[in-house]
Amino acid sequence: MVDLRSKFLNVYSVLKSELLQDPAFEFTDTSRQWVEQMLDYNVPGGKLNRGLSVIDSYQLLQQGRELTEDEIFQASALGWCIEWLQAFFLVLDDIMDGSHTRRGQPCWFRLPKVGLIAANDGVVLRNHIPRILKKYFRQKPYYVDLLDLFNEVEFQTASGQMIDLITTIDGEKDLSKYSLAVHRRIVQYKTAYYSFYLSVACALLMSGEALEKHIDVKNLLIDMGIYFQVQDDYLDCFGDPETIGKIGTDIEDFKCSWLVVKALELSNEEQKKTLHENYGNPDPAKVARVKALYKELDIQGVFAEYERQSYEKLISSIEAHPSKAVQEVLKSFLGKIYKRQK
Predict the structure, then answer these.
(1) Which residue in 33, 48, 84, 298 has the most C-beta neighbors within 10 A?
(2) What 3 state SS string does 119-146 have?
């Protein structure tokens, strides 16, 4: 695995140097340097789970067959396309949210020399993806399917971000708009498609599979993505900031979090009033009141039960799948996230 990670990082260096020599644009030293710094700052810094999952999934679909260097390179290139997509979303996301830090360093747009140039940098990141796909996959029978896949997932994610943003418009703080159905829609589109489905879809296409024959796999991965986000919502409030690497602010930010939706469902009128009066306010005393109410309603116990049920449901759906190789891929994803602490 360590070896695979270092091979994966080597592919980043190859892709970067090729993009910096792209014949479609006449680079100056200054522009080449800018793009290189922008890429190094934004693309390889995360956990790289999404990118590495393409290689993992492809390997499992080959049922133990040793991968060739070419296959490892191609699976890595697709993995990096997902990491590029993630970087594009995060650079723009941070501007929209007015965030300060990302992955333990200042957001790209917060650097004094960058500012709103970051908006165009996001667009550049997005446009690198088809350049990579064209160079390495143009001759493949599944090339058009890859382009379609990335375009569709990008559209779904941007639309998910839109419903998240318009649901939490400042000055229109209305908790009654929040429900499990609203939470599910936001998460499905904003997170699950690009974080869970995309990696496996890339591996399936590389394996010569038609995606329309794997709708059941897509649905399972979407359910897994929703479970993953519910965990995230839980950790935002109850996780250890040292472990998760950030201080949660979902309560202050009036987020449509699974916790608040569940609390609304379980509250009596008096408790609902407490939520309406205190949720979405940065005042630490009000945040503490919301957290106290979560304790009162035993949201931690409700989450533990949700986690148990979700796991059982996912495992039985996975085991019902006719392909052992596909089962392995799905179990590997579930194994990485079940009962995670960060």
Answers:
(1) 84
(2) HHHHHHHHHHHHHHHHHHHCCCCCHHHH
47 is catalytic: yes
Is residue 222 within 8 Å of residue 188, measured between CB atoms?
yes
Q: Is the pLDDT of residue 1 over 60?
A: no
| CA distance readout (Å), 52 to 78, 80, 96, 131, 278 | 10, 8, 28, 20, 41
Residue 316: both structure tokens together: 């039985």
pTM: predicted TM-score of the whole model, two decimal places: 0.93
pLDDT tens readout for residues 211-266: 999 999 999 999 999 999 999 999 999 987 777 667 788 899 899 999 999 999 99
In the annotation, is 102 catalytic? yes
How far is Cα 331 from Cα 324, in angstroms, rounded to an integer?
10
Structure-block tokens of residue 132: 């990579």
Q: Which of 223, 232, 236, 250 is catalytic?
A: 232
**174 counts as catalytic:** no
pLDDT in tens, 201-213: 999 999 999 999 9
